TrEMBL record:
Pathway(s) served: Carbohydrate degradation; glycolysis; D-glyceraldehyde 3-phosphate and glycerone phosphate from D-glucose: step 2/4
Catalysed transformations (reactions): alpha-D-glucose 6-phosphate = beta-D-fructose 6-phosphate
Protein name from the UniProt record: Glucose-6-phosphate isomerase
One Pfam family it belongs to: PGI
Keywords tagged on the record: Gluconeogenesis, Glycolysis, Isomerase
Biological source species: Prauserella shujinwangii
GO biological-process terms attached to the record: gluconeogenesis; glucose 6-phosphate metabolic process; glycolytic process
CC per GO annotation: cytosol
């Protein structure tokens, strides 16, 4: 059954799921949820959520309210280009970088995204042509440690290159944030103040999505046009509303035990939509022991998609494919708004507040404590064992004994049949890109849903779900040796120590909550990854 609005389509390709969703859809219609959401009614998620919802719903009208930004972005871009500045580096985590990355990737426009603390990856961005570079520092709160660190290292690099750093830094933040104050004090070139009544993961069509993408050269006016075309359809209390259909289907799937949403692209023409949707779905719904776990896979033929079990619902972005139970089609601006509506409405069906992220702070605190006590950064205990370039740090429940294949087998056996395995690679997502190949291999080997995330990027996405959602995850952390570290100006830590503290901090929080965690530290990254792949192959044979 397809629900087709102007510019966007949702098909429920599984008749059992469609039937199960019908009563939920009816209830959403009776309750007038679509129109109330569009009118920014904060009561839709219950009394506890109301105060937060009251300051988080302005995204429903951004296709109108963001219009004035377009001219401002174009003017700044023209000004920068007239000075020969045409390379845009974006420092921002989660909602402050995922949308611009998708927008520019879709248009084939170059944008260097820094959402990492990996020293090698940051050093590579610093090694680009600084004479032509503008740094966009995006942070809603203005206090995110990764983003602040990028600002510091770039400001120093500009100065050392004889460039006036203040003229090369553009800020996107909320009014009154510490970053807004700092930008004023430092005289940064331009500050775009975003609408504070939109949360980070719903901010694709605010200054957070539009400024970096537009400065890089993407056609951001077109995005707003695409959203405007579908806005009325998504606001309608109609059985043909694609967002209501999508939300009802996801809610029905969850009720039936399919709490994982496997996302594959089938030629949508959008680059990396799954990574953006992952944060939206995981941070919005993964809390109070419930939620939807997004599992972004390589395509509809990837392990975990067509062979998904009853604990997962396979969804495609683009034309339907064998095994898909749901598909969503439409241009990027329309899909942003569709998924925002559907996720907020699914939050109502799951009876949670889709606008907070209560469990993200725990890992941040643990990382801070480790940075305050650098002795803890030694990795705490000695490795249980060392196999070639791989040091093994096992948490309770796994012995860490034997060869790498034995250790992995023992660890993977701890994943419950209806659980999931999360591979968390605190590595360089460009130079160590091959680590991502572990996801399909491990999914095939274990037969359980398997996610892959780059650390610390995923901490601002699935990290919320890991700690707040269904507690059936098992976590394989990969950390790596650092060849050349970067100190963070006027801070008592280096990027390398921050990255390790983030891994150990999150690992500690997960362990404290009874989740199995195995950390493999690759003293030589390439050799360690190769050994790991060999161990997985050995288990598969
Ligand atoms: O824009 P900020 O405040 O730097 O936050 C970045 C990201 O961190 C989180 O607040 C929490 O992980 C996300 O929700 C957000 O998108």
């Amino acid at each position: 059954m397809a629900a087709e609005g102007a510019g966007v389509t949702v098909s429920v390709d599984d008749s059992a799921l469609d039937a199960a969703a019908a009563p939920l859809l009816d209830k959403l219609l009776v309750d007038g949820v679509a129109s109330k959401l569009t009118a920014q009614d904060p009561t839709l998620w219950g009394a506890d959520a109301e105060p937060e919802a009251a300051i988080r719903l302005a995204w429903t009208t951004l296709h109108k309210t963001s219009r004035p930004l377009i001219g401002e972005i174009e003017a700044l871009r023209a000004e920068l280009r007239s000075e020969g500045i045409d390379r845009v580096v974006l420092a921002g985590m989660g909602g402050s970088s995922l949308a611009p990355e998708v927008i520019t990737g879709t248009e084939g426009v170059a944008l260097t995204v820094l959402d990492t603390t990996d020293p090698g990856q940051v050093a590579d961005a610093l090694a680009g042509d600084l004479d032509r570079t503008v740094l966009v520092v995006s942070s809603k709160s203005g206090g995110t440690v990764e983003t602040d660190s990028h600002r510091r290292v770039f400001a120093r690099a500009f100065t050392e290159a004889g460039i006036d750093a203040a003229r090369r830094i553009v800020v996107v933040t909320d009014p009154g944030s510490p970053l807004a104050e700092l930008a004023e004090a430092e005289g940064y070139r331009r500050v775009f103040l975003a609408d504070p009544n939109v949360g980070g993961r719903y901010s694709a069509l605010t200054a957070f999505g539009l400024v970096p993408a537009g400065l890089a050269g993407a056609d951001v006016a077109r995005l707003l046009d695409q959203a405007a075309v579908v806005a009325d359809v998504l606001a309608a209390d109609s059985a043909d509303n694609p967002a209501l259909r999508l939300a009802a289907a996801l809610g029905a799937a969850h009720d039936a035990g399919a709490e994982k949403v496997v996302l594959a692209d089938t030629g949508s023409g959008i680059a990396g939509f799954g990574d953006w949707a992952e944060q939206l779905i995981a941070e919005s719904t993964g809390k109070q022991g419930t939620g939807l776990l997004p599992v972004v896979v390589e395509g509809p033929d990837a392990p975990g998609f067509a062979d998904a079990g009853t604990d997962a619902v396979p969804v495609v972005i683009g034309p339907s494919a064998p095994g898909a139970k749901l598909s969503t089609r439409g241009p990027l601006g329309a899909q942003f708004l569709l998924w925002e509506y559907a996720t907020a409405i699914a939050g109502r069906l799951l009876a949670i507040n889709p606008f907070d992220q209560p469990d993200v702070e725990a890992a941040k605190q643990a990382a801070r404590s480790l940075l305050d006590d650098p002795a803890g950064l030694g990795g705490g205990a000695e490795p249980a064992t060392v196999v070639g370039a791989v040091q093994v740090y096992a948490s309770a429940g796994t012995s860490g004994n034997g060869g790498l294949a034995d250790i992995l087998r023992e660890f993977l056996d701890t994943v419950p049949a209806d659980g999931y395995l999360a591979v968390q690679a605190y590595l360089d997502r460009l130079d160590d890109a091959s680590a991502a190949l572990l996801r399909p291999e491990l999914a095939k080997l274990t037969g359980v849903q398997t996610t892959f995330g780059w650390g610390p990027r995923f901490l601002h996405s699935t990290g919320q779900y890991h700690k707040g959602g269904h507690q059936n995850g098992v976590f394989l952390q990969l950390t790596g040796g650092v060849e050349e570290d970067l100190d963070v100006p006027d801070r008592p830590y280096t990027l390398g120590s921050l990255q390790l503290a983030q891994a150990l901090g999150d690992g500690q929080v997960l362990t404290d909550r009874g989740r199995p965690v195995l950390r493999l530290h690759l003293t030589d990254r390439a050799a360690g990854l190769a050994e790991l792949v060999r161990a997985v192959q050995e288990l598969a044979s």
